[in-house]
Amino acid sequence: MFSYTQLRKDYPEFIYHGYQIKEEKERICLEYDFEIPGLSSFHPTWEFPKKDEENRKYADDSTFRNLAFSLGMVELISYWKIACPPKVIVEAGALTAEQILWWKDLYFNGLGEFYYTNGISENQEDFMEIVSAGQEISADALSDRRLEGCLVPVGGGKDSAVTLSLLKGEKETNCCYIINPRGATLKTVERAGYGEAQMCCVKRTLDKNMLELNKQGYLNGHTPFSAIVAFSATIAAYMEGKKYIVLSNESSANESTVEGSTVNHQYSKSFRFEKAFHDYEAEYIGSGTYYFSMLRPLSEFQIAGYFAKCREFHDIFRSCNAGSKEDKWCGHCPKCLFVCLILSPFLSGEEIIRIFGRDMLNDPDMTEDFRKLTGMEKEKPFECVGSRDEVNAAISLTIDRMMGQEKDLKKLPGLFRYYVLNGLYRENDPASGRFFRYFDEENLLPERYLELVRRECTKGER
Ligand SMILES: CC(=O)N[C@H]1[C@@H](OP(=O)(O)OP(=O)(O)OC[C@H]2O[C@@H](n3ccc(=O)[nH]c3=O)[C@H](O)[C@@H]2O)O[C@H](CO)[C@@H](O)[C@@H]1O[C@H](C)C(=O)N[C@@H](C)C(=O)N[C@@H](CCC(=O)O)C(=O)O
Ligand SMILES: Nc1ncnc2c1ncn2[C@@H]1O[C@H](COP(=O)(O)OP(=O)(O)OP(=O)(O)O)[C@@H](O)[C@H]1O
């Protein structure tokens, strides 16, 4: 592995040269031009379907060009992190001093896990200087853009399935958005009752040079994928004529991964990012879209409770990132264990085993992840998992049910026996009542959806 300090000396600059918009009748291709002088150039691409009958010329639309430029600004971080050059020169467009601060904030916080896991100590002031060296995008937006309905990004896991279910009354005007479709994303959309006409599937291609440099041991690690979802979904919503971009990020995503620090694997799923993106879009892009997360008021506990009733998705949903390429639950990772634990108060033991294809709760190899998820360790797993408190509430509730009146420890699977023997079990835990009724007021839900979420998801049993 290369040294961070040495790489920054050897490669002092990263250049965002530009982007090309290739417009065809049925699709628009974006190609970015990045370079780390002396190391490599990179040309990642995106393909968006073009469906509107009026055959608009998006390349002539300044709002679209601004969106394309901005997607490049977020895309570049995956390439920058290879050598972390201290200076980033943006030739592709112009940025104000405030915008530069905004991008530095996203990069720095979105790379919190990258710094932590690579053992790099950095600060937000010095890690990067951004130089704006491009032309302002001239203002010639298409004037008659009328936006209505929702664009729902679908990840193939339980959260976006819950959003689709909550929005079933508005099916006619909804559109599902998928980056690089795979089994679970496509099946989720189908099960929710959407046909091809109501899907927007885009193709994102990473540059091969990055993958090659990763193999050679250049710096690699987590990047804020949900920020990619945010910017690219705004392009899709604009092209599809959709007003709302409806994410499925929950309140629990705000909790840091490393206790007592700001390192959060899910930074770009947090409310801090949601609000920052929402405001940036309104201030500097102005596409007319409205970005918010439908599940922001909720905990993962409530989402799991609601999802347990959405049986149409149980055989096809896949939350596991490790198994996502093969469309399977790997059954051995912290994300699989988390989903198993959070669903366990709401489904029977047999149903849980049927979903994951194995009995994780009786697998001693899962003990370390179990300790991390329950807060027995300071660090949560670097995965999209819920808060420590809600995991504990879910476990205690399930143990109540499994042990029954007899309080028979033998009825419990291995991990739950371990939990009781470590003194963590709380009989009839009052904390679970809190999670049934939880409602995070820090959210951007339009009025019409607030009541829907409150009604459907916060009226639990305890
Ligand atoms: C790593 C990643 O973001 N993957 C998403 C990507 O998958 P893709 O097939 O295009 O690439 P990989 O095979 O995963 O990675 C190949 C190498 O390229 C690097 N890389 C990849 C993407 C990127 O944006 N930057 C990169 O530098 C990477 O380091 C490898 O060396 O797109 C898919 C959709 O098309 C996503 O589904 C992939 O997401 C993974 C399942 C995944 O695990 N993503 C994690 C970032 C993750 O934790 N995702 C969270 C979101 C958290 C957040 O936004 O902060 C989640 O989905 O729960
Ligand atoms: N490939 C993708 N295309 C479009 N949107 C995506 C994609 N992957 C993730 N998203 C969006 O990002 C959100 C967060 O991803 P995440 O994987 O946490 O959620 P999920 O797949 O819906 O549920 P789970 O938490 O069970 O995995 C998703 O709900 C979805 O809105």
TrEMBL record:
Matching Pfam families: MurL_epimerase_C, MurL_N
Domain MurL C-terminal per the UniProt entry, residue ranges: 317-402
Catalytic activity: UDP-N-acetyl-alpha-D-muramoyl-L-alanyl-L-glutamate + ATP + H2O = UDP-N-acetyl-alpha-D-muramoyl-L-alanyl-D-glutamate + AMP + diphosphate + H(+)
Enzyme type, top EC level: isomerase
EC number: 5.1.1.23
Family the entry assigns: Belongs to the MurL family.
Protein name per its UniProtKB record: UDP-N-acetyl-alpha-D-muramoyl-L-alanyl-L-glutamate epimerase
Organism field: Claveliimonas bilis
Taxonomic lineage: Bacteria, Bacillati, Bacillota, Clostridia, Lachnospirales
